[in-house]
Amino acid sequence: MNDGRLTKEGIRIHNPDDFAGMHAAGQVAAQILDEVGPLIAPGVTTGELDDFINRRVTELGSTSATIGYRGYQHASCISVNHVVCHGIPGDKVLKDGDILNIDVTVIVDGWYGDTSRMYVAGRASRKAERLIQVTHDSLMRGIEAVRPGATFGDIGHAIQSHAEGQRMSVVRDFCGHGLGRTFHAPPNVLHYGRPGKGPVIEEGMFFTIEPMINLGRPETKILADDWTAVTRDKSLSAQFEHSIGVTADGCEIFTLSPGGLFLPAMG
Ligand code: MF3
Ligand code: CO
Ligand code: CO
Q: Which ligand has its closest atom nearest to the C-alpha of 30?
């Protein structure tokens, strides 16, 4: 595996040394998500949160992977309530009970760290809390399926079976992705699937798992700004994302929260 080769599916196999680069990048992204949490409250705008994130990206010696990516102009995506992903920060004022995903991707020494998590402005409703918990647990079940010899279908199945078992739905229109010295690389990491299907997972693969789970139906649409994805039925949506690297017996999560703050205290 020590050869930086590509699999037949075009998935890069990284060297043991490469894990340190990904760990450093992942930790900067996760630290920024830790730091932004205390700023979130009713009355704050998503643009103010992005300004803070943008400043911290620079202060921590990293660069934003999203500014300039396909014309995107912000250091984060902030997706509130029925926004599924790629919400554009701006003048939107948070109100009590809003739930939001903040997604940050940084580059450190050429390596990409990509992570997102959910936050609440004020107090969330019971159904919103449940959605956040189930989405978090779906991601973690997907991560638990990662080991050499398992398949990407095993990951998708672990996520889908948990979410649908709670009568929630898995978004099909967006997926996780390989990453490393590039932002988006093969494979597409689907958040649904069948056990044993899809590419075989090998030691040295780096990829994200980032399920989007809806309280209602899974269908999405893109707004006229060409970025913001929303649920077609306007139901609430949640997402969590980690960047991981496959080890000999499982995986390393590069984007673990330094402060243990990945899942917000709720209730
Ligand atoms: N961070 C997102 C992901 O998880 C991608 C955001 S691209 C942007 O893949 F341009 F919208 F920022
Ligand atoms: Co991602
Ligand atoms: Co992301």
A: 3
